[in-house]
């Protein structure tokens, strides 16, 4: 049984004029204990909405979400609260998530106080442990959020998210607002914590370089759909979907040198509105391999090597330019 899995999950919102925005369309993913699944896509691809659906902040329209094989998307809000501690989420803007009036230690302690059952001394001990785990000093514990740097604030958010001992941490663009060197510190911290505690991460990011560095598996989203899914080495080294290929080529400087592509592929055209996705293959308006067949029946999932698949008519025929890969140099 997977720790977490979504089965054909769709999330849709009714907009003005009764138009329906299908932000997440038929997504099935699995997360294993102690592993990191990356979800990559441009803004508007639905990746944040997927994360929010998993923690119960966005309504699941169709499909199911399971934690340890138990369905959780249909729980009442009271039942939901009982499992809520197991899945926590951190966001891009560490300032926004913190109460400016509370000290760092008080912010970290808050979920424990709300849950109840611990003495003040036990709470203090937990807080000290979490400060230490996230690389914050006791002195920083008495500061307020505005007295800290962005990186320190994200450490506080991570500590706070770990207070109730979750098994899954959803990181939504968790390092995107930080300088590159600070990003690396926070990523290393997340990796260390995972090793110590066996946490699983759902790592949502628009940055393929970051995702390639920390994730065991990667799902690529485009206009609400999962267009490619597989082990990081396969998705990065032998992409099956033209969109993944373009993402890889667009940010060579973001990838470790051993993963850089040689060719730069420029996506033609703008990202279509998710309110009016193209018929047939949704990527066809920007795909350099598109043919007539791409505008009629939507492509089905095509398997590549085991555990690797993509939604493209030609997933197996196209010899896409992957990142210079890794098996040889790692
Ligand atoms: Fe491109 Fe056609 Fe494949 Fe879509 S189905 S990604 S348009 S080649
Ligand atoms: Mg987002």
TrEMBL record:
Record InterPro entries: AAA+_ATPase, ABC_transp_ATP-bind, ABC_transporter-like_ATP-bd, ABC_transporter-like_CS, Oligopep_ABC_C, P-loop_NTPase
CDD domains, per database record: ABC_NikE_OppD_transporters (cd03257)
Coiled-coil region: none
SUPFAM superfamilies in the record: P-loop containing nucleoside triphosphate hydrolases (SSF52540)
GO biological process, one term: transmembrane transport
Keywords carried by this UniProt record: ATP-binding, Nucleotide-binding, Transport
SMART domains: AAA
MF terms (GO), sorted A to Z: ATP binding; ATP hydrolysis activity
Highest taxon, organism lineage: Bacteria
Domain ABC transporter stretches: 6-248
Family: Belongs to the ABC transporter superfamily.
Protein name: Peptide/nickel transport system ATP-binding protein/oligopeptide transport system ATP-binding protein
Native source organism of the sequence: Antricoccus suffuscus
């Amino acid at each position: 049984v997977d720790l977490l899995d979504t089965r054909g999950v769709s999330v849709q919102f009714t907009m003005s004029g009764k138009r329906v925005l299908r932000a997440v369309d038929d997504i099935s993913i699995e997360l294993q204990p102690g592993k990191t699944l990356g979800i990559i896509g441009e803004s508007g691809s639905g990746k944040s909405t997927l994360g929010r659906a998993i923690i119960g902040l966005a309504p699941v329209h169709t499909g199911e979400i399971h934690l340890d094989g138990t369905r959780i998307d249909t729980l009442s809000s009271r039942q939901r609260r009982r499992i809520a501690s197991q899945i926590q989420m951190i966001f891009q803007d560490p300032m926004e998530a913190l109460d400016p009036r509370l000290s760092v230690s008080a912010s970290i302690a808050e979920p424990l106080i709300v849950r109840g059952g611990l003495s003040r001394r036990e709470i203090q001990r937990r807080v000290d442990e979490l400060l230490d785990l996230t690389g914050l000093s006791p002195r920083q514990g008495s500061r307020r959020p505005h007295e800290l740097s962005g990186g320190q604030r994200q450490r506080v958010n991570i500590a706070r998210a770990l207070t109730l001992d979750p098994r899954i941490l959803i990181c939504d663009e968790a390092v995107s607002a930080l300088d590159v060197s600070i990003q690396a510190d926070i990523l290393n911290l997340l990796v260390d914590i995972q090793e110590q505690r066996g946490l699983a991460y759902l790592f949502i990011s628009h940055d393929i370089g970051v995702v390639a560095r920390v994730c065991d598996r990667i799902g690529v989203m485009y206009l609400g759909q999962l267009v490619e899914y597989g082990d990081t080495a396969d998705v990065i080294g032998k992409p099956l979907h033209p969109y993944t290929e373009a993402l890889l080529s667009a940010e060579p400087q973001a990838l470790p040198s051993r993963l850089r592509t040689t060719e730069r592929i420029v996506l033609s055209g703008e990202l279509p509105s998710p309110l009016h996705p193209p018929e047939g293959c949704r990527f066809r308006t920007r795909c350099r391999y598109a043919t007539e067949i791409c505008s009629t029946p939507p492509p089905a999932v095509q398997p590549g090597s085991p555990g690797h698949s993509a939604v493209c008519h030609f997933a197996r025929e196209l010899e896409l330019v992957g990142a210079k890969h890794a098996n040889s140099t790692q």
